Amino acid sequence: MFDLRYHVASLAAVFLALIIGILVGVGISGPVDNQKTKFLEEQVAEYQRQLDQTSTRKNADKREQQAALDYIDETYPVLVKNRLRGKRVAVVFVGLIDGGVRAEINRLFLDSGAQQLRLRALKVPIDVRQLDSSLRGQPAAAGLRGRKNVEELGRALGQELMLGGDTPLWDSLSDALVNDREGTKKAPADGVLVVRTAEPQRGATSRFLLGLYAGLGSVAVPAVGIEQTDAPYSATRAFAQAGLSSVDDVETRIGRLATVLLLAGAPSGQYGMKKSAEDGALPAWPTPAAAGG
Fold this sequence. Notes:
The protein is of the alpha/beta class. It is built from twelve helices and seven strands.
């Protein structure tokens, strides 16, 4: 299931001994000073540059695969520690909450210092008539009712969820649209993770979700669609179509690292182990300005 192929294998053995030596010296569970952390970041950046130059091949040597796995396992705790400290991240499930994916999100937050700001799990497919009925008389819904406006409604809901404050649309549609909800609705989000557990949708629901994803990604903070490697219905194409980044292997350490880097301000793109990961296994390391912003 975890075939690293050309994404990760090429330089793992070269860096592994050096990195593990450093980590053994400082102790992975103990404090690591900024100089050593910076060194690891530089190694990952160089690692990625070299990976981009590696020729495509179908199968990686098993020893190189294992070296890559060891490399990631040893460096991951240091590279993500406090990377998202103070960041408040919204979580959106399209469909029922998946316990396995949620456990990975909670682990990612714990590892990086992020906090879940709020969570929404949405009912799909949508019932347009029910939504219209729930929005009747709501001033904020002007121009958003009716089947022809479902994409704009989704966009407005995405923006409202990210910006916080007053949320008249979500308040009006809670019974019609939301299966589960947690957290405060007032504070703005510093990023969002989106998980689609439902099967691909069609018609009005498909357009609604496209608008929702676009709205989530329209407020100048990171928006990342995530899934597990064996997700029965991959949503990476839909995320990319709406302008979101994606990570297709969040249950692995390399997937969680990619997600943390994206939430920290790394360049957007499609990352992971599947063929749909057009931008490679990991994003480029975020610049200090992006990470701080």
